[in-house]
Amino acid sequence: MHFVQAKGILSSNNGINIYRGCTHGCIYCDSRSTCYNFTHPFEDIEVKENAPDLLNRALKSKRKKCMIGTGAMCDPYLHIEDELKLTRKCLEIIDDRYFGVAIQTKSSRIIRDMDLLKSINEKSKAVVQMTLTTADEDLCKILEPNVSTTKERFDVLMRCKDEGIPTVVWLSPILPFINDTEENIRGILDYCVKAEVKGIICFDMGVTLRDGDREYFYAALDKHFPGMKEKYIKTYGNSYNILSPNNVELMKIFYDTCKAHNIMSRTSDCFNYLQEYPEKFKQISIFDLM
Question: Using omega within 30 degrees of 0 as the cis cutoff, is the peptide bond preceding 173 cis?
Answer without folding.
Answer: yes
